[in-house]
Amino acid sequence: MLYTGHKCMICGKEFTEDDDVVVCVDCGTPYHRACYKQQGCVNTELHESGRSWKDENAAETVVCRRCGKSLSPDQRYCDRCGTLADGAAPFEGAPGAQDDKGAPYGGMGGPGSMGSPGSPYGHGQGMPGGMTERIVTLEVRPEDIADEDVTYGELTQFVGPSAAYYMPRFAMINRFGFKLGLNIGALIFPELYFAYRKMPMTALGIMLLRMVLSLPALLVMLTIPEYSEVFITNFSSFPQIVDILRHIAEYKGAESISDLSTLISILDTVICLALGMWANYIYYRHALHKVHALKEADNSDYIPLSGGTSIPMLILFILMTSVRFIASLYIINAFI
Predict the structure, then answer these.
(1) Which of 15, 126, 163, 224 is 20 to 30 A from 310 via CA?
(2) What are the φ and ψ backbone dihedral angles of 91, each rounded to 5 degrees?
(3) What is the per-residue pLDDT across 239-297, written as a single tens digit (0 to 9) for each?
(4) What tens digit of pLDDT does each residue of 302-315 get?
């Protein structure tokens, strides 16, 4: 029976399957038939307010403030997008998956989306350009352990923007050992990607390696009059750099290393492809290491500050990339 377990407001007894129950036609409050005949409806509050009877034992429906999914009252996190439910206390060591302003996830981190838009714990994987991949059900929850004592909720805190992109991919790595996955940002600008993700030593190492690999090709290019004159004109305000450019342009041994420069250019392309395919895994290991170290030092509150992204560091490496050309000129000039 619909009202089993609820109490009659007149006699105070709970309704059973065998009780004869009637309801007030105006407000819907249930009573035993005998009680109602004796006193009528006593729920004057509802009559005065114009409201209807509400099941006092029924749990109020909680709706996720971010994706709109209906939640049970005992849920702390939305199982679709990972957002902390209104009024819920975060899991220990896994504060809300949403940022402090309730902003949707998004930003520089890679293409594609998983599950519903902006969902760090989604279940389906999409690709740009209308392509569709096989859907994999991951059932990732914020309190689930990603590795050692680090939870996905803590990784969400650390990643910050673009958690919707990274969380399902981290789960793929953790559960299935699937380490490869295309990351367009790391494929095109690997050093800038890792700088943006607060991995300066990795970014610097990649930048220095690519600078060294670019030297033979740059030397060959600068010995071509059409190219050298363009650079000489652009740096006309810097006499020392112009002198270096003229010296390189006069070098006669560039043809002997032309084939080598082609091979090295191919190697540089292979390195970028590898970084583009392994970047998510590299970032996953970095995030685990940082979060684990912070927890060991009892500094869990600093997880969001330690992770996330850094625009200043990105700008710094963009400037360093610009200066890299001049540094390459000095290195070439020293060896010819």
Answers:
(1) 126
(2) -65, 145
(3) 999 999 999 998 888 888 888 888 999 999 999 999 999 999 999 999 999 999 999 99
(4) 999 999 999 999 99
What structural domains does the chain harbor? Answer: 1-58 (3.30.40), 59-178 (no CATH), 179-336 (no CATH)
Residue 269 parent element (H or E): helix 258-296
Is residue 209 within 8 A of residue 264, CB to CB? The reply is no
What gap in Å lies between CA 8 and CA 5, rounded to an integer?
Answer: 10
> What gap in Å lies between CA 301 and CA 304, rounded to an integer?
7
Q: Check if the beta carbon of residue 149 is closer than 8 Å to that of residue 295.
A: yes
| Sequence letter at residue 309 | T
23 token code pair? 């309801």
Q: Which residue has the higher pLDDT, 131 or 214?
A: 214
Contacts of 222 (CB under 8 A, 6+ apart): 228, 231, 245, 248, 249, 332
pLDDT in tens, 47-106: 887 777 764 444 445 666 666 666 666 666 565 555 666 655 443 333 333 433 343 333
State the alpha helices, DSSP H only, in 11-96.
33-39, 44-49
Which spans in 108-249 are helix H?
A: 152-159, 163-176, 184-188, 190-196, 200-222, 225-234, 239-249
